[in-house]
Design a protein that fits this description.
mainly alpha, 7 helices, 3-stranded antiparallel beta sheet, 10% strand, 143 residues, 5 strands
Length: 143
């Protein structure tokens, strides 16, 4: 909400614009655009001020609703993990964003795929749908 004092100042600017010769209006508009950019920069700088709050593993467990062991496993390579000696703390804002951007179970599926590839040295065999239909198979995994 705009204060009465700010509204009075805006009206004063409007009156000043009305007093400017039409030939000088492009210069006034340029100045107004510079002020507008300054106001946007101030507004976004306030909104983008990060909060840095470290929480414990137990608090992260409550947020993510996963076992403590999984949080510790994720923390080995996560951007939100902060190590303080032997202790691990979690940067809450980054952790919450990370959780929202992560696909549930993706880490487990990736780990399972890696195990499957390790178990089958030849790897997964893929072929075109035409070849697959000719062979009578939909998906083939090499032994």
């Amino acid at each position: 909400m705009t204060s009465p004092q700010a509204l009075a100042q805006i009206e004063a600017v409007r009156a000043a614009i009305d007093a400017v010769d039409p030939a000088g209006l492009p210069g006034v508009i340029g100045q107004l655009e510079a002020l507008r950019a300054h106001a946007w920069a101030r507004m976004t700088a306030i909104a983008a001020t990060p909060t840095f709050k470290l929480i414990t593993i137990e608090e992260a467990v409550e947020i993510a609703r996963v076992p403590k062991r999984r949080i510790r496993s994720w923390a080995r390579s996560a951007p939100w993990a902060v190590r303080l000696g032997r202790r691990v703390r979690v940067e809450e804002t980054v952790f919450r964003r990370w959780l929202l951007s992560s696909v549930p179970g993706e880490r487990e599926r990736t780990r399972t795929r890696k195990k499957a590839r390790a178990a089958h040295p030849v790897g997964l065999v893929s072929c075109s749908p035409d070849t697959s239909a000719a062979l009578g198979a939909v998906d083939t995994v090499a032994p």
